[in-house]
Amino acid sequence: MKVIEFIKQKQMDFQQSNAEFKARLEPKIKDWSQLLNDTFTNTLNNPWMSRFTPHDDAKSADPACKPLVMSAQTEQMYLELKQQLGQETFLGQWHLVDQTCIDQFAQVTGDSQWIHTDPVRAQEESPFKTTIAHGFLTLALIPTLTDTVNADRNPYPSAKMAVNYGLNQVRFPSPVKSGTRVRARTRLIGLTPMKRSIEVISEVSIEIENSKRVACIAETVLRLYFN
User: Fold this and answer.
1) Which pTM does this prediction carry?
2) Does the structure show a pLDDT above 70 at 91?
3) Distance in angstroms (rounded) separating the CA atoms of residues 103 and 180
4) Where in 87-160 does DSSP place strands (E)?
5) Cβ neighbours of residue 224 under 8 Å, at least 6 residues apart?
């Protein structure tokens, strides 16, 4: 009997402790929930984001919603891009990555590691026997290498604005040695139509001259906005 009473007492103690734990935790959960809700709401109400109404675009792209009705300009551009899906859309010119370029990037980013900025030490200690470009420098060259910053060559002339929406993934299979040339190949791999915008996903491969290995492979995400 004493064993049974002991077990019952322990069960009661556990239930009481559990109830106290819940009582302490519930207010915190409510606070966290409110914080997350406020953060999400403030992000969507941000003046910069509100110009593009991303929540409206997301609803428009949801198959469960009403059929998507695109603006005339958006639909025309989407149909043109759809024909290029899966194809190589751009092959750039060779671009020299020299020590001056690497040093300038190091100065801007604060990354002055010797493998990038000290040619003498790199020749003695680096397995590459020379300095190499930062991986992020190679990535940052994509707008130049793909010629998307050229005002005289606009691949999306009907778009009101093109916004760099981010990257899906990035890899740096091989380093870029100082004094070598690189170029970019672009392949269109994804399209998402929205009411007044199109999300364009491209695979950008940055090649190294006289090398079988690429320096960088990145999936870029571009948002095109129309009237």
Assistant:
1) 0.69
2) yes
3) 15
4) 88-91, 95-97
5) 77, 156, 159, 161, 162, 197, 198, 199, 200
